Amino acid sequence: MEQFKKITIEDKNILTEHLSLRKYRACDLSIGNLILWSDVYNTQFAVAGDNLFIKFVEGNNEYFTFPAGKGDLKQSFEWLFDYCKKHDKEFKLNVVDPSMFEEIENLYPGMFEISYQRDNADYVYNVEDLKNLSGKKYHGKKNHVNKFKKTHIDWSYEKITDENTPECIEMVKEWCTQNGCCEDKSKADEICVLIKGLKLRKELNMIGGIIRLEGKIIALTLGEQSGDDMFIIHFEKAFSHIDGAYQMINQQFIINELAGNFTYVNREEDMGVEGLRKAKESYYPAFMAEKGIVVRK
């Protein structure tokens, strides 16, 4: 299949077959991410020479990913060069990490350059750090958690299940109303994708958790495994007027679902949003998963 086609849930197996052969630290090439956001980013894929190519379309720009699979890498790049020439498209790769660029340099010395986008780098944390919140640097986070537990006796944690999914969807819709999604397309897109993720949770092997307060869901999170040692948090929503709700879902999900099973948790990028960057930095990442754009020099 050498023509690009839109990614759908039916393509899960073929995506997994190729993408599982490499360990990715960035969130963009996780199966759930590709399928859930395919409508927003018009994400497409093609298979040529036993390698998988992903294409993201943003307006008039098209970005391709590093070939994934068992096929010959140089032949795969030659196929992609021919595709771009045939369709009068600029050759641009996105979501390229340093190890990928090293492979490109080995094949085509000095032909390409990479620029890393700080706004797009993923925050990757040690699971144990976020579980324990130990030490002075996490003092503020622990205070929020302790205050929540002291103020609210009637709280509980649950895993997301078929039974509570309808309540999760209602909670997300309420969050959307409170946070002005109707006036913000990016927020509205995210909420639509989150609801889609909740509905396709089992098909995509996703895991989620919720916090209830007096029986009502006040926070939820949803994500998926990536490789053998990392979990990606794709979504996290809480009612911000409840002090400590975000810190609680963050820690409780780690304690109940991730601790002992994963070494790292990827909490995705900050997209250059100042408040989001401050919040993510305050949890002290173990490292940043860099993602670059590659073009011809």
From TrEMBL:
Coiled coil, from the record: none
Database matches in SUPFAM superfamilies: Acyl-CoA N-acyltransferases (Nat)
Pfam families membership: LPG_synthase_C
InterPro entries documented for this protein: Acyl_CoA_acyltransferase, LPG_synthase_C, UCP018688
Domain named Phosphatidylglycerol lysyltransferase C-terminal: residues: 24-286
Protein name: Phosphatidylglycerol lysyltransferase C-terminal domain-containing protein
